[in-house]
Design a protein that fits this description.
The complex is a heterotrimer of chains A (418), B (240) and C (260).
Chain A: H1 2-12, E1 20-23, H2 32-38, E2 44-47, E3 51-54, E4 57-59, E5 64-67, E6 72-75, E7 82-84, E8 90-92, E9 95-97, E10 108-113, E11 119-121, E12 124-126, E13 130-135, E14 141-143, E15 146-148, E16 161-167, E17 170-172, E18 175-177, E19 183-189, E20 192-194, E21 197-199, E22 204-209, E23 215-217, E24 220-222, E25 227-234, E26 237-239, E27 242-244, E28 254-265, E29 268-270, E30 274-287, E31 290-292, E32 296-300, E33 308-310, E34 313-315, E35 319-322, E36 332-334, E37 337-338, H3 361-368, H4 379-390
Parallel strand pairs in A: 1-2, 2-5, 3-6, 4-7, 5-8, 6-9, 7-10, 8-11, 9-12, 10-13, 11-14, 12-15, 13-16, 14-17, 15-18, 16-19, 17-20, 18-21, 19-22, 20-23, 21-24, 22-25, 23-26, 24-27, 25-28, 26-28, 27-29, 28-30, 29-31, 30-32, 30-33, 31-34, 32-35, 33-36, 34-37
Chain B: E1 2-11, E2 14-24, E3 28-33, H1 40-47, E4 55-60, E5 63-64, E6 75-78, H2 90-101, H3 107-113, H4 129-141, E7 147-151, H5 159-174, E8 178-182, H6 186-192, E9 195-200, E10 203-208, H7 210-217, H8 222-231
Parallel strand pairs in B: 3-8, 3-9, 6-7, 7-8
Antiparallel strand pairs in B: 1-2, 1-4, 4-5, 9-10
Chain C: H1 2-14, H2 16-36, H3 39-68, H4 70-77, H5 83-116, H6 121-148, H7 152-180, H8 186-195, H9 198-210, H10 212-215, H11 220-228, H12 230-257
Helix pairs in contact in C: 1-5, 2-3, 2-5, 3-5, 3-6, 3-7, 3-9, 5-6, 5-12, 6-7, 6-9, 6-12, 9-12, 11-12
The structure holds adenosine-5'-triphosphate (ATP) and magnesium ion (MG).
């Protein structure tokens, strides 16, 4: 039965049957929609450079649409442009514009509804409401696109790349800027998100929920409103990403909420208000990351358990670790490098002979009285920190790195190059 | 030249001066006498603007001295306790005063007079008490001013220096200057003073010449007269 | 006044104090630069030293110096000089010599450092600036206290107490107050309290350059918004200036009335 389907597929997409249609303003086909209507399965449409104002174009069959020199596709009346319900559609080399805000529908320049194995490659999106909207799709690839909007208000904006209830997506090498969320995934499993750059989005650089078994690699999340939020998911791998300068009133590099069995390795967290904020983050391995000059490198709430934090560098953070527990700690901190460690290593094995307590008294105080931040670095606070270090009252007694490294660890994140 | 008009002063509960009025004019030496703690130094410091009266006014050349400082250019003042920046040498100290006051002082004459040449390079803190007092005198007297105020000038001086000091003061009197002097050495009073101003219990108890004082006390010796004044201080017949 | 300023200034330059002060900061700065090899870390390290020790040393030194120069003061008082010139001149002479000691002590190692590395002069200049201001303020406070208290021991004790109060106790009280008052606009309270203490104000001004990330957190943002703006900076500077001017004003006033 399956074999039969395969044969059928091969026959149906046989190249001999495919046709090529050229669209240009003074060609005989002057509109993209006409070309799509005329095309048969597997045809190719080439769009010459120019400006095309199109109303909704529905694609229900495999097609390849190629733009030459980025022809501009403008949405008529600001409505959505492509609506893809067929499989194996490829769209490349276009520039989408003027898809306007709507409160009643999720308007996107490219709207994939159920089509599988779609390729959206090397397109530009300028001030589109949603850029690419993917729903109920399998194996779709979104690669090398640039999506730039200049939104100011979160409520009036939408996501650059938005995926819902899909599987095996590849989102790679995209640049997203000025949207609500840069990248958004909900109920998306077994996907790969890599080499993307999410810059100055109003809410999250990356936002995903209920999405399991995904890999995030080599992405850069920079100066987004609240950083990156990862929620209600398990078996996530986050490798070699950079979380940079996510500043704001409730901003973090990475927010973990209800996350289980995941790995966070070789990432760089630099200049964020909070590097990692963990709430009910369970069985997470946080290895070989660099935390540099964050307000709080890690804030692990009491609900986070069985996490292992090891071989990370904590360098010049205002606070390294804080938690809302003051009695017991259920995570393991070991063999990290703490730049404020002031123990010694007499036996020269590279491991400090005195345990390090990364939670300061003052960071605990801030949990109750955030306004006290104004007393940071005051003599009084330093004194209390010192006393607390000797006689822990507010900090969990067992939250300590028993084997602190005396030298910075070579984690090969990009921090070396910054 | 100098008028104290009804001066009152207390330090905390201690009433030191209770209505002192006196004038000094026309040249000559006035000795301000009185027991320890009677307010002599206080009165002098008021003239120099170092202590302020609670009540009353001090006039210098007919003008109140309150909030003024230029008039001090006309006063040579020798403080009772010589207190100088201890780390300066004598020369530096003299130069300091010269620099601050300006003008053309004649310190060399006084340095010669008190044989201070060999001490000029020494730091103040290394000087003996008497030598320090000599430096004190040089600093006070090196300017040629119409008014001279000497608070216990003889403290610590050896007999030779004392004689030279007396000569010096008399020399200045000869120039017609007004000189105020306090001392507890009666011979000095007898040798120098034209007039005596006796302070007792915050008031001018007696004002007059030495013969008048002897008369007033009914004694023929100054020392005894003073003692008499002190013993009969309850007497009400104050002469001013 | 200039003559007196000059005399006090040279007197102090010649005394060991200024030299010790200079060498102290030179060694600390050079030491930190050497150990950390990093200019930012050095400034963080210096923050507490400057914010705590500049006031302490200015306080101790101001008191000692005032009592020691009492003879000089008395000598001057008998001279034809304005009282104000005597006291303000001495104050300026002292605080300038200390400030120069501090300024050069911190600056020189950085200048040497800058031959081989790049130095961010914006934070450094605030550090220098704040230290000089604190020297001015606490010299003035100790001068004032010494002027009021004739008893040397008492004056010394009072000066140290003032320092302790502003450097330590005040922050303790602030923390206590903030944790007690839960339902009030705490940001405003702590902002006001910060302005009322020159040590806190200096610290916050430096902190804004050093702990940007933490201060951009929920409440920190309020402070950051305030101090980070040029308006806030202008206000902070004015506050430090007022903190200098007020004790100097009282030095002038009290010296006008005092008996010697
Ligand atoms: N600055 C001051 N504060 C408090 N009390 C003072 C002060 N100056 C002087 N007194 C007190 O005022 C009183 C008068 O002192 P003053 O020095 O004028 O006495 P005096 O007549 O010069 O005594 P002596 O003969 O010992 O020189 C003394 O009891 C002294 O203790
Ligand atoms: Mg006397």
């Amino acid at each position: 039965m399956i074999r039969l389907v395969y044969i059928l597929l091969i026959v149906l997409s046989f190249p001999v049957l495919a046709d090529t249609h050229i669209v240009c303003s003074d060609c005989h086909i002057g509109k993209v929609s006409n070309a799509v209507d005329m095309s048969e399965r597997g045809d190719t449409i080439i769009i010459k450079s120019g400006v095309y104002t199109e109303s909704l174009i529905e694609i229900d069959k495999p097609l390849t649409i190629i733009g030459e020199n980025f022809p501009k596709i403008k949405a008529k009346n600001g409505e959505k442009i492509f609506h893809i319900i067929g499989d194996s559609v490829t769209i490349t080399g276009l520039e989408f514009m003027e898809v306007t805000r709507s409160f009643t529908e999720d308007r996107a320049a490219i709207n994939i509804q159920g089509g599988d194995y779609i390729s959206i490659i090397n397109n530009r999106f300028t001030n589109t409401f949603f850029g690419i909207y993917i729903a109920k799709s399998i194996g779709t690839k979104v690669i090398d696109n640039r999506l730039i909007s200049n939104n100011r208000i979160e409520m009036n904006s939408a996501n650059a790349i938005h995926a819902w209830s899909s599987k095996k997506l590849t989102v790679e090498n995209n640049y997203v800027e000025g949207h609500r969320d840069g990248l958004y995934f909900e109920f998306c499993d077994n996907s790969i998100i890599k080499n993307n750059h999410s810059y100055r989005n109003l809410r999250y650089g990356l936002h995903f929920m209920f999405s399991d078994n995904n890999k995030y690699k080599n992405n850069i999340f920079e100066e987004n409103g609240a950083g990156v939020a990862v929620m209600y998911s398990h078996h996530i791998e986050m490798y070699k990403n950079q979380f940079l300068n996510n500043w704001g009133q409730s901003s973090y590099g990475l927010l973990l909420k209800e996350i289980k069995d995941s790995k966070i390795h070789y990432n760089l967290f630099k200049g964020n208000t909070k590097g990692i904020y963990g709430e009910s983050a369970i069985r997470i391995n946080i290895f070989h990351n660099d935390f540099v000059q964050n307000g709080w490198a890690m804030q692990m709430m009491g609900s986070s358990e069985q996490d292992t934090i090891s071989h990370n560098n904590f360098i010049q953070n205002t606070f390294n670790v804080s938690t809302n527990q003051n009695a017991k700690n259920y995570n393991i901190y070991e063999k990290n490098y703490w730049s404020d460690y002031n123990g010694y290593d007499l036996d020269k094995d590279g491991i400090g002979d005195v345990p390090h307590r990364p939670v300061k008294f003052f960071s605990q105080v801030l949990g109750y009285t955030p306004e006290a931040i104004i007393l940071l670095r005051s003599f009084f606070i330093e004194l209390l920190n010192f006393i607390e270090n000797i006689v822990p009252v507010l900090t969990p007694e067992n939250l300590k790195d028993l084997q602190p490294m005396v030298k910075q660890i070579d984690n090969d994140t990009v921090s070396k190059h910054i | 030249m100098i008028q104290f008009q009804n001066i009152y002063k207390s330090f905390g509960k201690l009433e030191v001066l209770k209505g002192v009025s006196a004038g000094v004019d026309g040249g000559g030496i006035t000795a301000i006498l009185g027991p320890n703690g009677s307010g002599k130094t206080t009165l002098i410091k008021m003239l120099l603007g170092m202590v302020y009266p609670d009540k009353g006014e001090i006039m210098f050349n007919g003008k109140p001295i309150k909030k003024e400082w230029q008039y001090k250019n006309d006063i040579s003042y020798l403080p009772q306790i010589a207190r100088f920046p201890e780390n300066l040498t004598v020369t530096e100290l003299i130069n300091l005063i010269k620099d601050i006051r300006g003008g053309t002082p004649n310190e060399q004459r006084l340095i010669d007079l008190f044989d201070l040449d060999s001490h000029l390079g020494k730091k103040i803190k290394h000087l003996s008490g008497g030598t320090k007092q000599k430096v004190n005198i040089v600093l006070a007297m090196m300017y040629d001013n119409p008014v001279i105020v000497l608070d216990e000038p003889s403290t610590g001086l050896d007999p030779i220096a004392l004689v030279r000091l007396k000569d010096l003061v008399l020399e200045e009197r000869a120039k017609g200057k007004n000189i105020l002097i306090t001392t507890h050495i009666m011979s000095l009073v007898e040798d120098l003073s034209d007039e005596i101003l006796f302070l007792l219990e915050g008031k001018v108890y007696f004002r007059g010449t030495i013969p008048e004082l002897k008369d007033f006390a009914g004694e023929d010796n100054l020392e005894k007269s003073i003692a008499h004044l002190l013993e009969h201080k309850h007497a009400e017949n104050i002469k001013v | 006044m200039l003559k007196i300023l000059k005399y006090s200034f040279y007197d102090l330059l010649r005394s060991k104090w200024t030299l010790i002060y200079f060498l102290f900061f030179l060694l600390i700065t050079q030491g930190l630069l050497y150990i950390t090899g990093d200019e930012a870390k050095t400034i963080v390290g210096l923050l507490n030293v400057v914010v705590i020790l500049c006031p302490l040393i200015a306080t101790v030194f101001g008191t000692v110096n005032f009592y020691n120069s009492r003879e000089f003061t008395e000598l001057l008082l008998a001279q034809p000089l304005k009282r104000r010139d005597i006291f303000i001149g001495q104050y300026l002479g002292m605080t300038l010599s200390l400030s120069i000691g501090y300024f050069l002590g911190v600056l020189i190692p950085f200048v040497i450092h800058s031959i081989t590395y790049t130095v961010d002069y914006s934070v450094l200049s605030i550090l220098l600036f704040v230290g000089v201001f604190l020297t001015f303020i606490f010299s003035a406070l100790s001068f004032l206290i010494s002027l009021i208290t004739d008893n040397k021991i008492k004056g010394f004790g009072l000066s140290i107490l003032t320092w302790l109060l502003l450097a330590l106790v005040y922050d303790g009280m602030q923390l206590f107050l903030l944790s007690m008052l839960d339902n009030y606009p705490l940001e405003k309270i702590s902002l006001v309290m910060t302005f009322l203490n020159p040590i806190d104000l200096s610290r916050v001004m430096l902190m804004l350059k050093l702990d940007m990330s933490a201060l951009l957190g929920y409440t920190g943002a309020v402070f950051n918004k305030f101090f980070g703006s040029s308006f806030g900076y202008a206000i902070s500077l004015s506050a430090l200036l007022i903190w200098t001017v007020i004790p100097v004003y009282f030095i002038n006033r009290i010296s006008m009335k005092k008996d010697f």
